[in-house]
Specification:
- It is a single chain.
- The protein is α+β, with helices and mostly antiparallel strands.
- It has eight helices and ten strands.
- Strand 6 and strand 7 form a beta hairpin.
- The longest helix is centred in the N-terminal third of the chain and has 13 residues.
- The chain is globular, with a radius of gyration of 28 Å.
- It starts with a helix and ends in a 24-residue tail after the last helix.
- The N terminus and C terminus are likely disordered.
């Protein structure tokens, strides 16, 4: 009896002969079930690809990573927990003095994952340090604790979101030190710019001119709008949260060396006496997404001897160069 004759017999039992044809052939020929064969180069010997797996490639920091989609799983360089574990910054990063943390934030990437899975990313290019205690411009000046500023006294990496002018929000992150936190002032948009533009546009007047990319996140309230940072993110842990986190630096690709860090007075605290002049604002020199450029600070920086301080400062790599008791 031929193979096809056997198939006709099997169809009376199972209407799908394609499931049984290999079994029949195996029984007739005394051979084991068909095994996958690889050619000499290690490629699939079949001329058609497996319908169960499709591989594509996507951009990532460093080498290009593969994205694999199967019938029951989906992994990518943006959504897999393995990648997040490789690049996500944890408690150890945030547990450093406020000024060092404010500088260390520069160049890092703030990531926001929305409820529908949309991912928004922006590189931190400007921060401000609020030291608590004797820092009269800080919400926690004098060790004052309130329901509003409780996050500033929580463990390093805690998000502090507060409202200004009764309308806008600002995002801070607690550091080492009693009541100390870093204000995130500006981001360089990296991913999800069209979503950012829509989120920003919802708060603008009808008929306003289209926003340039560099204007999407160039201010503390603008970045909260563009990354959809809501008020209830207050007191969340940036080191462990599933909807917002911080990742390591991503090379810009258009520079041989990282830009220098400019140290300048903070913005909008003119009523706080000598603290209004302390150089506790830090930004990447020459970056187009910085909210306010301080030409005087940059000029003084250029006149200082020695090499410029890179934005990749970490705890222990540099002494605290700000003397808070100086006028």
């Amino acid at each position: 009896m031929s193979v096809w004759s056997h198939c006709r017999v099997f169809r009376k039992i199972d209407p799908n002969p394609y499931v049984n044809i290999n079994v029949v052939a195996s029984q007739l020929n005394g051979m084991p079930p068909r095994k996958r064969k690889l050619d000499a180069e290690g490629q699939d010997g079949n001329s058609s690809a497996s319908p169960q797996t499709v591989k594509t490639t996507g951009p990532s920091a460093g080498d290009t990573a593969a994205t694999t989609r199967s019938s029951d799983t989906l992994t990518s360089q943006y959504f897999s927990t393995e990648r997040e574990g490789d690049v996500r910054l944890g408690v150890k990063f945030f547990d450093q003095p406020c000024v060092l943390l404010a500088k260390a934030f520069l160049g890092k990437v703030l990531v926001r994952r929305q409820a529908d899975g949309t991912v928004l990313r922006g590189r931190v290019v400007e921060t401000e340090a609020y030291l608590g205690g004797e820092d009269r411009a800080s919400h926690s000046a004098g060790g004052r604790r309130t329901e509003r500023n409780a996050a500033m006294f929580m463990r390093p990496g805690t998000i502090y979101v507060y409202q200004i002018y009764g309308v806008y929000l600002c995002m801070n992150v607690s550091s080492r030190g009693e009541g100390a936190a870093v204000l995130l002032r500006s981001l360089e948009p990296l991913q999800g710019q069209e979503v950012m533009r829509r989120l920003r546009g919802a708060r603008r007047r009808e008929g306003s001119r289209p926003l340039k990319e560099k204007e999407l996140c160039n201010g503390p309230s603008k970045l909260c709008q563009a990354l959809d940072i809501p008020r209830h993110f207050d007191r969340r842990d940036l080191a462990t949260d599933a909807e917002v986190w911080l990742e390591r630096d991503v090379p810009r690709g258009d520079e041989e060396e990282p830009p220098a860090v400019v140290e300048a007075p903070r913005i909008g605290i003119e009523s706080h006496g000598e603290w209004a002049t302390k150089p506790l604002r830090f930004y990447l020199r020459g970056h187009p997404c910085v909210s306010v450029v301080n030409r005087q600070a940059e000029k003084q920086m250029a006149q200082q001897p020695g090499p410029a301080v890179p934005h990749t400062l970490h705890q222990g790599e540099a002494q605290h160069r700000i003397k808070i008791n100086e006028n």
